Please model this.
Amino acid sequence: MSDFWNQKYSRADYFYGDEPNEFLRSQTFRLPPGARVLVIGDGEGRNGVWLAQQGFSVTTVDYSAVGCQKARALATRSGAPVDVQCVDLLSWDWPVAAFDAVVSIYLHFLPEDRRRVHHHIAHSLAPQGWFIVELFHPAQLAYSSGGPKAPEMLVTAADLRADCPELEWRLLAEGEALLAEGPGHAGLGRVTHGVAQRRPLAG
Ligand SMILES: C[S@@+](CC[C@H](N)C(=O)[O-])C[C@H]1O[C@@H](n2cnc3c(N)ncnc32)[C@H](O)[C@@H]1O
Model:
């Protein structure tokens, strides 16, 4: 599958643009200054680089070698350091309780893998750390603004709640959004997005 993404990113411009996702931009106010942020499936780096420009300590993970190369180039151009790791999240040795926030923007998996990744996300967060997520909703199949065409890869708010019992949702919504993220996401779409916080450790 990384070949699929390498091919998408083998173009001079940035497939999802070089500006951050709007939902991420609107929710970053929650993060403490200097927060350690993990951005998973960051592709060509638009979200990780923007977060680094805001002063956060950013690690990004993506398995597309071409995406990682373009993410590093974007980070260098922006002058904001990002630790870009080219790794498959399904075999990654996830750090535990290591991040103040995890960001996942349009990272879609088959259900079993999605549940596994969401479990790792919850455990990679420090107590009271934040999870910021945006995905396409199953109703996106009726729109032509991007996203996977396999219905089982699309995600509802109920899926997110069920996947992450360790987290408390502060905001969780499904609805229409106008996407203007490069040629990859353009036009009206149907998304599920949310912000959740890791519960404090018991005891
Ligand atoms: C739809 S793109 C979104 C890219 C980026 N989040 C953005 O919004 O610009 C999905 C990304 O997830 C990455 N990805 C998918 N499965 C992955 C896996 N198992 N491990 C690491 N990266 C993965 C792909 O390489 C691709 O860059």
User: Anything to note?
Assistant: The chain has one domain: 2-8+15-198. The CA atoms of residues 38 and 102 lie 5 Å apart. The mean pLDDT is 97.
